[in-house]
Design brief:
With about 525 residues, the chain is of the alpha/beta class. The protein folds into three domains: about 220 residues, HUPs (Rossmann fold, 3-Layer(aba) Sandwich), CATH 3.40.50.620; about 80 residues, Uridine Diphospho-n-acetylenolpyruvylglucosamine Reductase, domain 3; about 170 residues, 3-Layer(aba) Sandwich (Rossmann fold). It is about 45% helix and about 20% strand. The protein is built from 18 helices and 20 strands. Helix 1 crosses helix 2 and helix 12 crosses helix 13.
Length: about 525
């Protein structure tokens, strides 16, 4: 009788502790030692009557032939172990560019979307991943470096919604030992050695440094810390849930709270209640700064002030109530009905413009600065930006366009108003609302160079780099945005929408009907 290796016994026992014998689960399998050990162990459990399993492998469109090799290896392993295997192909790089995400974040979002799609098709009770102790330690470090509260520092949970992570308490070495004991041939992802990715730098550089210099057992120590923090976070979440049930009043697309009772809560509980209201109305992500702004509105009881949040959610204090409303700018519904989604809120724009103004003021200290504003669209941005540049400057204007009434550049630049200021020997900064193809900006800067300024730089609020037809890059950029037609804060379509206080993506149906 074959003797079961300790690693094999421990892995299978650990998985059984979190999975139900009568349920069907979807396993996320990349082809590495961690996920192949998980898949093999689950196949063995299925043979013993403990659950049923299928596999999903997601190929992210990043590694070419190497990724296809891994996909085929997973398919072969699943066939040998009697596990149904589904493969999904996604394009992480293009999704990252379109949504202003890192490649890592884009790949993660697409991967989980694919896993949930297959899980729903297969009627899976949950998705099972192979995250282990080392992954947990890396997650804690990443969130600590980025800045996080208790909820974030608690790391990944063994059970969280539709995700189960049964291996979080196991070291990677045990999973590698399992694969060796069972003769499993694993795949190696070359991008795991690329320190351009933040998580890889943490794993390959920061963790070894901490092990050498501070604590040889730093990985299990951090994993235990995350587990302890998770207990505390769960306690606070329960307190917040109780407070939310007692105080929140939900009506259609609004959630309101009595201010007196809400302010009496401890701040740790109160902030969780506020965030809960935002997510209840369909919010997706809420930054620390926005959470603090909502709390400040509550504590100051600032009547009449509106805080605009992503996903079209507003917060207002009125009649001793703090109200979250899923309504945007009700006073002009028709214009706002034309907006598909808010890309940049007024608060985001204001904060970024202030940052740009400070940077420009520092760069041009003791210089003779002339700002040239490209009308009409840049007027809103330029007005706010020049007020944020705390130094003497002069302002001039040009009118040029390559759009007309369409949604894409015509390629032909028309100059209707030239500068009146003598810019010879001066330091010139050209301000526009958006760089798209780069045609207009390139033509204008080429023209201005004939006037022999001492220096010539450019600033744009938005950069739609995917549309670029030349190598132009602005010296100061507010936001990189996806290839969508955007309006608001000076940006228009056929002269409309400039007066929106935010920047939103225009519904295609709007320019289709015009």
């Amino acid at each position: 009788m074959r003797q079961i290796a300790p690693a094999v016994y421990k892995l299978r026992k650990t998985i059984k502790n979190l999975l139900q014998p009568e349920a069907h689960y979807l396993l996320a399998v990349s082809g590495g030692a961690d996920s192949l050990a998980l898949a093999h162990a689950c196949a063995a459990l299925a043979a013993q009557g403990w659950g049923s399993y299928s596999v999903c492998h997601v190929e992210h469109g990043l590694r070419g032939e190497e990724a296809l090799r891994d996909m085929k290896a997973v398919q072969r392993a699943c066939e040998a172990w009697g596990l149904p295997c589904f493969t999904e192909h996604v394009q992480a790089a293009s999704y990252a560019a379109q949504n202003r995400l890192s490649t890592e974040d884009a790949a993660r979002r697409l991967r989980y979307a694919a896993l949930r799609r297959i899980a729903a098709q297969q009627g899976a009770a949950a998705i099972v991943t192979a995250h282990h102790e080392g992954d947990q330690a890396e997650t804690l470090l990443l969130r600590l470096l980025r800045g996080a509260g208790l909820q974030g520092l608690a790391g990944m949970r063994a059970q969280q919604g539709d995700i189960i992570r049964p291996l979080l308490t196991l070291p990677k070495s045990l999973l590698e030992e399992y694969c060796s004991a069972e003769g499993i041939e694993v795949c190696y992802d070359s991008t795991n050695a690329d320190t351009a990715y933040t998580r890889n730098r943490v794993r390959l550089e920061l963790v070894p440094y901490l092990e050498r210099s501070f604590n040889p057992a730093v990985v299990p120590t951090l994993a235990r810390t995350a587990a302890l923090l998770a207990q505390d976070a769960e306690c606070l979440e329960q307190m917040a849930d109780d407070a939310y049930r007692q105080l929140a009043r939900r009506q259609d697309d609004a959630v309101s709270f009595p201010v007196t009772q809400l302010t009496a809560l401890h701040s740790a509980v109160r902030l969780r209640v506020l965030r809960r209201a935002y997510f209840e109305l369909g919010g997706e992500e809420l930054s620390f700064e926005r959470s603090q702004a909502i709390d400040s509105l509550l504590l100051r009881r600032s009547g009449g002030k509106i805080i605009q949040l992503p996903q079209g959610i507003n917060v207002v204090y009125k009649n001793k109530q703090l109200i979250f409303v899923k309504i945007m700018y009700k006073e002009n519904e028709k214009m706002h009905d034309d907006i598909k989604t808010v890309l940049l809120t007024k608060e985001e724009i204001d904060a970024r413009v202030q940052e740009m103004g400070k940077q420009i003021a520092a760069d041009y200290a003791d210089k003779d600065l002339v700002v040239i504003v490209l009308l009409k669209g840049a007027a809103w941005f330029a007005t706010d930006l020049t007020r944020a540049i705390d130094m003497p400057l002069r302002v001039d204007f040009m009118v040029a366009s390559s759009y007309g009434n369409g949604t894409s550049t015509s390629g032909s630049v028309k100059v209707k108003l030239d500068v009146s200021e003598d810019i010879k020997g001066k330091d010139v900064l050209v301000i526009d609302d958006i760089i798209d193809s780069g045609v207009t900006f390139a033509s204008i800067t080429d023209m201005l160079r004939h006037y022999k300024p001492a220096t010539l730089k450019t600033a744009a609020l938005c950069d739609k780099a995917e549309r670029r037809v030349n190598g132009l890059e602005a010296d100061y950029v507010g936001f990189k945005i996806p290839d969508e037609f955007v309006v608001g804060y000076g940006l228009d379509y056929a002269g409309d929408y400039r007066n929106l206080p935010f920047i939103g993506i225009l519904k295609p149906a709007v320019y289709a009907r015009k």
